[in-house]
Specification:
By secondary structure, the chain is α/β, with parallel strands linked by helices. It has two domains: about 5-85 and about 90-175, Rossmann fold (3-Layer(aba) Sandwich); about 185-360, Argininosuccinate synthetase, chain A, domain 2. The protein has helices spanning about 15-30, 50-55, 65-80, 90-110, 125-135, 155-165, 240-255, 280-295, 300-305, 310-320, 325-335, 365-370, 380-400, and strands at about 5-10, 30-40, 60-65, 115, 140-145, 180-185, 190, 220-230, 230-235, 240, 260-265, 270-280, 340-350, 350-360. The strands form three sheets. It has a five-stranded parallel sheet with strand order 3-2-1-4-5, sandwiched between helices. A five-stranded antiparallel sheet has the order 10-9-8-13-14. A hairpin with a 4-residue loop joins strand 6 (about 180-185) and strand 7 (about 190). Helix 1 packs across helix 6 (about 155-165), helix 3 crosses helix 4 (about 90-110) and helix 7 crosses helix 8.
Length: about 400
């Protein structure tokens, strides 16, 4: 961390880490701190944030409503890619970080700040996601990372809680419930505390966006989602903005116990970590999108796109949102989505998201060809030569082996 810091824009959530860091920056570097909070759908978490930031030492706070931009320009592009990390994680935190960092840089420019700061630890992924974006958008900016600073001595949750109590900084985290949570419109994540034991089942009172499947309604809920060009645009016939649509599906799916994930993932820095994620609306959209693609995408195009899902997810997870390779991959994926228009009907029931129907004006599915009944469009004898030609190399190999 550079010693000559005059004005810094801090990515501020009002949680334990950034609340402590705000006060710590003032104390250690005697600099002006401007707090920036991105409204990504945290809802009640934003209440009292301005007063708290100013009372903790910020000279000013920006609270920007980024919900529509987040869903439209970050969540939906990832949905078009069917992005999923290590088979389970829909990248809720990873997709939010480049947007927060982008806005942070914009505020730093407007305020004439020489530095930006984040509260991510030196063990995690977020430090990479923030700083890769800073460097891609404003290469000359000073980057402050307190957890990696030699002057930082608050290297545990307990020490930070003690610091907050000493300086009368109000916090919700306690030594009995030391969970780290990150919420936005796509998901909420839970880490730390008892969750650091991968054998321990997460306590039910920890969950925020979803009920337990056991407590979900005994009657299934049906929902229809309409897509245009790979993007969801309406639910049950009602047009909605991106943020409105995801917010509505979060409520609907959460009430049916959908979207809980408990996984041990591989962090970019090399260690494994356990995270609990609630992604109700995103889980429904992911299932619906795949179902619609099944009737609208050419087989070979789908194969090429699907082969890119792991790479796309890895780039997002590792913080390469603004990289040249990400730009190229996104353009290719968006090209595959031009015909992904139609409607999917889903059945939501006790944690299950079941596809109940799909239709599209661009459907490649033909009942005339697929039927098991008598048809006049498909010559079944044609399959004989098709199979022989595809097996030719294997037949030649077997003949040589047996010779």
């Amino acid at each position: 961390m550079k010693d000559s810091v005059n004005k810094v824009v801090l990515a501020y959530s009002g949680g334990l880490d950034t609340s402590v860091i705000l006060r710590w920056l003032k104390e250690i570097y005697d600099c002006e701190v401007i707090a920036f909070a991105a409204d990504l759908g945290q809802k009640e978490e934003l209440e009292g944030l301005e007063e708290k930031a100013l009372n903790t030492g910020a000279s000013k706070i920006y609270i920007e409503d980024l919900k529509e931009e987040f869903v439209r320009d970050f969540v939906f592009p990832a949905l078009r890619a069917n992005a999923i990390y290590e088979g389970s994680y829909l990248l809720g935190t990873a997709l939010a970080r480049p947007l927060i960092a982008k806005k942070q840089i914009e505020i730093a420019r407007a305020e004439g700040a020489d530095s930006v700061c984040h509260g991510a630890t030196g063990k995690g992924n977020d430090q990479v996601r923030f700083e890769m974006t800073y460097m891609a958008l404003e290469p000359g900016i000073k980057i402050l990372s307190p957890w990696r600073d030699d002057k930082w001595t608050l290297n545990s949750r307990e020490l930070m809680i003690d610091y907050a109590n000493k300086h009368n900084i109000p916090i919700t985290l306690t030594k009995k419930k030391p969970y780290s949570e990150d919420r936005n419109l796509l998901h909420i994540s839970h880490e730390g505390g008892i969750l650091e034991d991968p054998w321990a089942e997460p306590p039910e009172d920890m969950f925020v966006l979803s009920v337990s499947p056991e407590d979900a309604p005994d009657k299934a809920t049906y929902v229809e989602i309409a897509f245009e060009g790979g993007n969801p645009v309406a639910v049950n016939g009602e047009k909605m903005s991106p943020a409105q649509l995801l917010d509505y599906l979060n409520q609907l799916a959460g009430e049916n116990g959908i979207g809980r994930v408990d996984m041990v993932e591989n962090r970019f820095v090399g260690m494994k970590s356990r995270g609990i994620y609630e992604t109700p609306g995103g889980t429904v959209l992911w299932s619906a999108h795949r179902a619609l693609e099944s009737i609208t995408m050419d087989r070979e195009v789908m194969f090429i796109r699907d082969s890119m899902i792991p790479e796309y997810a890895k780039l997002v997870y590792n913080g390469f949102w603004y990289s040249p390779e990400m730009e190229v991959i996104q353009k290719l994926i968006d090209e595959t989505q031009k015909n992904v228009t139609g409607t999917v009907r889903l059945k939501l029931y006790k944690g299950n998201c079941i596809v109940a129907g799909r239709k599209s004006p661009n459907s490649l599915y033909s009942e005339d060809f697929a039927t098991f009944e008598v048809d006049e469009v498909y010559e079944q004898n044609d399959a004989t030569g098709f199979i022989k030609l595809n097996a030719l190399r294997m037949r030649i190999g077997a003949l040589l082996k047996n010779r």
